[in-house]
Design brief:
With 147 residues, the chain is mainly α. The chain contains 7 helices and 2 strands. The chain has helices spanning 2-13, 16-24, 31-37, 49-73, 77-95, 101-104, 108-127, and strands at 130-131, 137-138. It has a two-stranded antiparallel sheet. Helix 1 packs across helix 4 (49-73), helix 1 (2-13) runs antiparallel to helix 7 (108-127) and helix 5 (77-95) runs antiparallel to helix 7 (108-127). The longest helix has 25 residues, at 49-73. The radius of gyration is 16 Å and the shape is globular. The two termini are 21 Å apart.
Length: 147
């Protein structure tokens, strides 16, 4: 549940840098969302907002799972998450985007910042103590039981 919440929050706020950039530079604020839609099978040349939202949710869930697995072994925090976000940006934008012209056409800087924010927020939220039913905090790692 903690990872789901962290990923959901990060997925929403991670678009702030590119949205602000689009507003300041008078660009289309939905361009990145439409471009993400081309990541879905059969849509490489058909960008779309609905498809982009689905693709963004799937990609965010996958990367959240990766970061949650890493966080079970090592504390990420915001700093470690930000570094992870930059690695994710290198993979997403540097390698995977090569085959997706709409993604490749997006301004690179704001997209990198989006990834950095995603990683930092996910890392920070995964690092927070988990609340229990008794409204106390638990320091037990996710998936582990107390003895």
């Amino acid at each position: 549940m903690k990872a789901t919440r962290a990923g959901a929050v990060a997925a929403v706020v991670s678009g702030i840098p590119s949205t602000v950039h689009a507003l300041v530079t008078d660009r289309d604020i939905l361009a990145a969302t439409r471009a993400a839609g081309t990541l879905l099978p059969g849509r490489r040349d058909r960008p779309g907002v609905a498809a982009g939202l689905v693709a963004h949710a799937v990609v965010s869930a996958v990367w959240t799972s990766v970061l949650a697995a890493a966080a079970r072994r090592h504390r990420l925090g915001a700093g470690g998450g930000a570094v992870a976000g930059l690695v994710i940006a290198a993979l997403d934008l540097g390698i995977a985007a090569r085959g997706y012209p709409y993604v490749r056409a997006l301004p690179r800087g704001p997209q990198i910042l989006d990834h950095l924010v995603f990683g930092a927020v996910t890392g920070a939220l995964l690092d927070r103590p988990q609340r229990t039913d008794q409204d106390t905090t638990s320091t037990t790692s996710p998936g582990c039981s107390e003895l």
